[in-house]
Amino acid sequence: MLEIKSLRAAIDGKTILDGLTLSIGDGEVHAIMGPNGSGKSTLSYVLAGRAGYAVTGGSVTFNGADLLAMAPHQRAAAGVFLGFQYPVEIPGVSNLLFLRTALNAQRALRGEADASGAEFMKAAKVAAADMGLDFEMMKRSVNQGFSGGEKKRNEMIQMALLQPRLAVLDETDSGLDIDALRVVADGINRLRSPDRSTLLITHYQRLLDHVKPDHVHVLMAGRIVLSGGPELALRLEAEGYARIAAEAGVTNITDAPMESAA
Ligand code: ADP
Ligand code: MG
């Protein structure tokens, strides 16, 4: 599904990703954990093609295609979905209009017909109910006045409607209380399928109690320094990042407390 090889990326001339290699197979759920400032959000933005992130080396292949050569909207149409750490508010654009426009734009790029109004509304109602979001919120401006938890639920509603091939979820668990965490985790689990892969970027082990990853990777100083199974997340929870950093020879981490996700 996704092959990242020796990826290097810079912001304003400063190298953030520094030789990151990661391979995600069809249907797999991978978790990336790492201290604040290690490059987790940068990786998600580089995969989505956000402006301002210069790729200075390496390659990313998505289902055999050169992902880095594609424009952001082409990546989305090809099935790459990015759930933001900090979802944006779009005043004046209703959530429903936004979602329907995004869905139909992606369909058009794939040569598919628009979703009918009735078909779309039905899917939107199911997705909102699944995520425990009042349907009235779907008629309001995108994320405007939404609580942190509502914004994260809304990200999952977008994902459920867009049905991506690869979901990159950046700290989807941040700002969620335990009930909302469970709802969001159920949403992620519901979308698990053999032809969809998920990259969960998270600061915490707690999401991984509910969404069992196939593989866990530790990102530090812009590269994957250690990979393992779900037990690696438990080790990080118990030990923090400092010891793994020392073992990996990484000296410049800012090992912020686990509870203050940035
Ligand atoms: P994480 O998500 O792991 O906390 P980020 O990818 O957000 O880390 O940031 C990685 C590094 O890049 C940090 O040192 C951060 O200060 C820097 N950085 C992130 N965004 C910008 C930006 N827009 N301009 C300059 N530096 C940035
Ligand atoms: Mg981040």
Structure in words:
The protein is α/β, with parallel strands linked by helices and 262 residues long. The chain has one domain: P-loop containing nucleotide triphosphate hydrolases (Rossmann fold), CATH 3.40.50.300. Helices cover 36% and strands 27% of the residues. The protein is built from 9 helices and 12 strands. The strands form 3 sheets. The protein has a 6-stranded mixed sheet with strand order 6-9-10-3-11-12, with helices on both faces. Helix 4 packs across helix 5 (148-162) and helix 5 (148-162) packs parallel to helix 6. The longest helix has 15 residues, at 95-109. The protein is globular, with a radius of gyration of 18 Å. The chain starts with a strand and ends in a 14-residue tail after the last helix. The model is unreliable at 256-262 (pLDDT under 50). It binds adenosine-5'-diphosphate (ADP) and magnesium ion. Magnesium ion (MG) binds at residues 40-41, 85, 170-171, 262.
